[in-house]
Fold this protein.
Amino acid sequence: MKVSLSILLFFLCLSSSVRTLAQYYDTPKEHDCLKCHSQQTYSFHNELMGTDDKKLMNPYYIIDTLGLREGVHKQFDCTDCHSYDYTTYPHNANLKLEPLATCLDCHGGDESFASYQFDKIQEEFQKSVHYQAYGDNFTCAKCHSQHTYTATARNSNSILEIVDYSNKMCLSCHNDMRRYGLVSGQENPALIDVHSWLPNQELHFKHVRCIECHTAVEDELMVSHNIRAKEEAVRRCAECHSENSLLKASLYKYQNLQERAEDGSIIGVLSNENYVIGSHQIPILRTISLLIFFAALGGIIIHGIFRIIYKK
Amino acid sequence: MNSTEDKIYFYPVWLRIWHGINALGIILLIVTGITMNSGFEKGLIEFGLNMKLHNFAGAIVSLNYLVFLFGNLITSNKKFYIVKPRNFLKRPMKQAYYYAWGMFHGMQAPYPLSEKRKFNPLQKYAYIMVMYFAVPLVIVSGIGLMFPELIFNQVYDISGVLITAVTHSAMGFFISIFLIIHLYVASIGKSPLDNFRSIVNGWHHITKK
């Protein structure tokens, strides 16, 4: 009886401790960090003036508490990555100067994360236009928020969800004037205009990841991280649309009509550069045509030789 | 024998002009067509320009085809394209036999050309097939590709655009083969270049019996 009671007690303790861990960020208002970092404002006692001050929270320091609970790092405490000194409040301003741990500090050379190939990702990323332009300032976190990141591409069964999640990473800057400016110091080009040449733009955006056209494919990696300069992006429809003839057909019609809508003059119509891909790649027809061609050529050569011999 | 006596004025001016435009147009179409099919991204001519050349040449050859149709309709040239049902297969066979065997063994041409007969039977059949079958089909399918909304959407599971494109290139291919044979057979004359001179100046040498 005593033994079974102690076992029960042990399991009760264990389950409650696991619960605590899983529920760690569940009540942000009671969490030491989140009670400020999930709010628009924060308050502190201004010892210099002897007043209670209320300030606006930097919007980039407001944590998505819902995302945090779903993210891959949900079991970590804030101070596992951020300095322990942040537990003092108000925070010491000098803490900002401390470098944060990078992803590879934990994930680099880690056997338990070998399948994620973090080192290979780093290698590929360093070839990318992001790294070339901004160097080490362009951290993984620019795209992959450590607070909320989920391995959607690995875990989701929905292509739409994977595409959406992936594209949101790009769009978080490329479709956001402020965030784009924070990194690049320039205005971001309007995505819709830049991609206006793309037929059925909206559908493409919904069903195709940006990286499909904007990265150099690396077979070894699940997701290519070598994002290339815009000049090197895929622009040839044929690179994707080369299997399904129906797809090609509708694309051909679309493109053709689109161009005629822009310039309907005879010269405009004749100047279109559309082409039905693959209509000459039907193997049986190719074989037959080669046979006919060589038969005709052979006939002519033999006849010609006889004409030379007989001087006709 | 007077040298003018064995010459016939075969090709009137309109026909020679039509033929000249057709020849240049079709050669351009074949070259640009093959370039497109080759699949080389960096061909001799840039792909877009190649397409444009093909479109323009196609339009010119199509309009020129109307010249051929109306020319034949209003002149007596049409009679050379009429096939008599009698000996429908025997006549071209005889001509083929002459080309393959007879001409090397002292045989006289079975269908010597005259004012009444501009084409030998084999020639006539080939021209009819090209001018009244392959060329119209290549023009119609070409128009279909230029205006894809005119094309039926699907035949069973195959897209209309694809069928049209395949028809277009298949007919283009047959016309190319025709051209090769046409040029070769044209070299069988009084001298290898004689017939080429004829289509330029209109006068054709005939062999009198």
Notes: Chain A touches chain B through 34 residues (CB under 8 Å). The longest helix of chain A spans residues 283-310. The first strand of chain A starts at residue 41 and ends at 46. The CA atoms of residues 181 and 187 of chain A lie 6 Å apart.
